[in-house]
């Protein structure tokens, strides 16, 4: 077989995400995956140390999820959700709601993390429109990332993702991230904004800002922020697209809180990396804000594959795995290994900071100059890891590991070893 046949054919017609094709390296053609491993068309093996953008916590080609999908496909592959329902959707709601904060009562289906956020922001804004109140703005953290559809993009704070669209988006005001030492500044800015009564919602990535480089902050300050919003009637939206389903060591990052958000956005690991699906969950109060004799007060939002039965079957199987003893042990083991590696590496002369939460490990390279998000240093690190058979996607000078829960100790140690080699080399 011709070497790199798929890679060469890819260049004819395919446009890849987050890619400047003029100077991009050829895209690696993956032909097989199993567990924490992937193989390219030439037979080279890679350890998927980021669970393919955080969606494959139970490993590639998971047989349990595959069997559930196959069974569903032979019964009911899809049916429109407008005017109809089906058992997988009903079962998924029944299984998921008890795992969420106690105030979450309703589920709205969409198809990816960005659309889950889009739904939440529309609900916050329309709730007050339905009441005849003018609250047209949203609060979000600096350097947040919530997706690439328009409202989600507006709530995101990584400027080069959004600068071409300024003036075409909803109004969002950003507040400082309450990282250690900045808590009071964040609380003060939020308090001043809330007094204006102009804001419908506050959206946040709970405890960890993923795309910003796994920036972490404490649950206690998030509890304070949520409490302040509740006092002023501003709805709180927990974007758990990345953190959900075990990443932080608990089922959801919100499980670390004493306060409860009004909405939650879930996707990525929801179906174990198999079928695109997302959920936005709501309190009864929010649902009731749309429950009216006036049809114009309904939520006129939908997706063709809303509540796809096959996706629901995959999500149900994924929940089985999440709650299994094997996966719980895997999460605990990875966390312990991360802490051990952190202890070994944190005093390296090239390490600026390290942080760990659940299965998330992040390390910041010490640099004399600042590094662009997709700059030369980041690209050098990325290519080094790829050459060594490790899939990691640094963010500027930050390298993070967020592996499948089934990764072996030996595979994870190899990831650490290669990171150590990068520290010595660069």
Automatic annotation (TrEMBL):
Cited CDD domains: OAT_like (cd00610)
Q: Does the keyword Transferase apply?
A: yes
The name on file for this protein is Adenosylmethionine-8-amino-7-oxononanoate aminotransferase
Q: Which cofactor does it need?
A: pyridoxal 5'-phosphate
What subcellular compartments does it reside in?
Cytoplasm
Q: Does the keyword Isomerase apply?
A: no
Q: Species name for this entry?
A: Flavobacterium cerinum
Pfam families for the chain: Aminotran_3
Q: Which residues of this protein are annotated with the site description Participates in the substrate recognition with KAPA and in a stacking interaction with the adenine ring of SAM?
A: 18
Family to which the UniProt record says this protein belongs: Belongs to the class-III pyridoxal-phosphate-dependent aminotransferase family. BioA subfamily.
**Residues where N6-(pyridoxal phosphate)lysine is found:** 268
Q: Where does substrate bind?
A: 53, 268, 302, 393
Q: Which PANTHER family match?
A: ADENOSYLMETHIONINE-8-AMINO-7-OXONONANOATE AMINOTRANSFERASE
Query: Could you read off the lineage of the organism from its UniProt record?
Result: Bacteria, Pseudomonadati, Bacteroidota, Flavobacteriia, Flavobacteriales
Q: What is its EC number?
A: 2.6.1.62
Provide the GO MF annotations for this entry: adenosylmethionine-8-amino-7-oxononanoate transaminase activity
Q: Which InterPro entries match?
A: Aminotrans_3, BioA, PyrdxlP-dep_Trfase, PyrdxlP-dep_Trfase_major, PyrdxlP-dep_Trfase_small
User: Which reaction(s) are listed as its catalytic activity?
Assistant: (8S)-8-amino-7-oxononanoate + S-adenosyl-L-methionine = S-adenosyl-4-methylsulfanyl-2-oxobutanoate + (7R,8S)-7,8-diammoniononanoate
């Amino acid at each position: 077989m011709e070497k790199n046949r798929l890679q060469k054919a890819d260049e004819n017609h395919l446009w890849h995400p987050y890619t400047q094709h003029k100077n991009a390296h050829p895209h690696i053609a993956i032909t097989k995956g199993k567990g924490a491993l992937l193989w390219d068309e030439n037979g080279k093996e890679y350890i998927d140390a980021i669970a393919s953008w955080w969606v494959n916590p139970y490993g590639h080609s998971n047989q349990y999820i595959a069997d559930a999908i196959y069974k569903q496909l032979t019964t009911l592959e899809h049916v429109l959700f407008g005017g109809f329902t089906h058992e997988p959707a009903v079962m998924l709601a029944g299984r998921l709601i008890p795992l969420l904060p106690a105030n979450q009562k309703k589920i709205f289906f969409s198809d990816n993390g960005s659309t889950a956020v889009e739904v939440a922001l529309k609900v916050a804004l329309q709730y007050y429109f339905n009441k005849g109140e003018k609250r047209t703005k949203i609060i979000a953290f600096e350097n947040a990332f919530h997706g690439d559809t328009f409202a989600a993009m507006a709530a995101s704070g990584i400027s080069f993702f959004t600068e071409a669209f300024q003036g075409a988006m909803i109004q969002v005001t950003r507040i400082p991230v309450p990282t250690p030492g900045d808590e009071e500044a964040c609380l003060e800015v939020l308090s001043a904004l809330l007094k204006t009564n102009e804001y419908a919602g506050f959206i946040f990535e709970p405890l960890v800002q993923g795309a910003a480089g796994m920036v972490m902050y404490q649950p206690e300050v998030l509890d304070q922020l949520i409490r302040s919003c509740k006092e002023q009637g501003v709805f709180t939206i927990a974007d758990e697209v990345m953190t959900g389903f075990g990443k932080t060591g608990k089922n959801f990052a919100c499980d670390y809180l004493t306060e409860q958000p009004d909405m939650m956005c879930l996707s990525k690991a929801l179906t174990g990396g198999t079928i695109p699906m997302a959920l936005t969950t709501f309190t009864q109060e929010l649902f009731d804000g749309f429950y009216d004799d006036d049809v114009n007060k309904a939520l006129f939002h939908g997706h063709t594959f809303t509540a796809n039965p096959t996706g629901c079957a995959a999500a149900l199987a994924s929940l089985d795995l999440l709650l299994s003893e094997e996966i719980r042990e895997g999460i605990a083991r990875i966390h312990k290994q991360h802490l051990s590696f952190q202890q070994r590496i944190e005093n390296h002369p090239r390490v600026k900071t390290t942080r760990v939460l659940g299965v998330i490990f992040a390390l910041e390279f010490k640099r004399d100059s600042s590094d662009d998000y997709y700059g030369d240093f980041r690209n050098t690190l990325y290519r080094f890891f790829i050459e060594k058979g490790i899939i990691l996607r640094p963010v500027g000078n930050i390298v993070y590991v967020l592996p499948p829960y089934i990764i072996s100790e030996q595979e994870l140690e190899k990831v650490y070893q290669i990171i150590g080699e990068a520290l010595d080399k660069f």
